[in-house]
Amino acid sequence: MTPAARLQAAIELLDEVTASARDEGPPADAIVTRYFKHRRYAGSKDRRAVRELVFRAIRTSAERPVSGRAAMLGLVGNDPEVTRLFGEPRGPDPLRAGEEMAVAGFVPNWLQPELSSLVGNDEWPALLERAPVDLRVNIVRASRDGLLAQFADAAPCPLSPWGIRLPPDSRIDDHLAFKAGLIEVQDEGSQLMAMACEPGRDARVLDLCAGAGGKSLALAAAAPRSTILACDSNRLRLSKLAPRAERAGALIETRLINPPRELDDLADWREAADIVLVDAPCSGSGTWRRNPEGRWRLTPDRLDRVVALQERLLSIASELVRPGGRLVYAVCSLLSREGAGQIDRFLRDRSSWISEEASIHGGRLDGQGRLFTPGHDRTDGFFVARLRRPC
């Protein structure tokens, strides 16, 4: 592919990404992979160059552009080397006077007032930096010190004693340690969420929004004698846990739950869990460095919906915790309504519940929980709070 053809391909892909973000379709990664699956003529250098253009354009614009061309124009700006490609054979149409272009920014304008007061605009650039690849060591089978030497350019994660940090875009799925179940890919922030639960030796732990089970696996490694139930309402996501658990040698029960009858589906766990973890669906604003087009997907209506869902999930979880047991609430979000505000509301409605400080390193106090941010902690952004039910 010529440089002009690469630029045109990036614009076509950005058209698909903007439409998918508007219509809640597939993520950008999947769109790029599918695009090149049907264009075998594109070599590895072509694919890498086009992908780089696409994601640079996505990171550049906080607001969803009107088109892929507008997104690319916002990226190239006054770059003469790229500007000259417009109008070349196999490239995009020539530039026109007064064309609309995306405006550079980090956080959508409408969302800025929703951010926690701890996330000042000096931290905004870090929200879009390329994220490292963090690994969680399966401490039942291996030690971090024993595995560090097996990875090039590896370093210990600074906050999680289970974590190893690799450079962005590192591939580990063909590594012997991964195949042997000694490691899992898991951001240090997610590791800290699991650590905040502090399961006891024979604890009964319920992971209410388990997804593919990353935190359930971390909990199983931390407390191998505990009983762990991983639940989710999405059959496909939950089905991914079984092979991961088998590879890790973890005993984890799974259960599909059906909204709005979750409490009926979990009747045998009502007031019986020592720990309930609620890693709730959220805006994903803490993971923009991994999914930068997430800014284009979020709308005020969607935010209102996830906040309402978080409130409902917290209410369900409160009925599953035994007297004296713990509820750990976490969201990959930097927005006050989803974090500190959600816990303030919960405690106003249940004044007898007690807020506890989780014994994890890093973060900053934010209301009755802790907020971790890419700029301050070098993790994905997330809020975590731990509450105890009265005896």
Describe the structure.
By secondary structure, this protein is α/β, with parallel strands linked by helices. The protein folds into 3 domains: 3-105; 133-185, Alpha-Beta Plaits (2-Layer Sandwich), CATH 3.30.70.1170; 188-388, Rossmann fold (3-Layer(aba) Sandwich). It is 37% helix and 16% strand. It has helices at 3-23, 28-37, 44-60, 68-76, 80-83, 144-148, 176-179, 188-195, 214-222, 235-239, 241-248, 262-265, 294-297, 300-320, 340-349, 374-377; strands at 133-137, 155-156, 163-166, 183-185, 204-207, 227-232, 253-256, 273-279, 321-331, 354-356, 364-366, 369-372, 382-388. Strands 5, 6, 7, 8, 9, 10, 11, 12 and 13 form a 9-stranded mixed sheet that branches. Helix 3 crosses helix 4 (68-76). The longest helix is centred in the N-terminal third of the chain and has 21 residues, at 3-23. It is globular and about 70 Å long. The mean pLDDT is 95.
Features:
single chain, 391 residues, alpha/beta, Alpha-Beta Plaits, Rossmann fold, 3 domains, 9-stranded mixed β-sheet, 4-stranded antiparallel β-sheet, 16 helices, globular
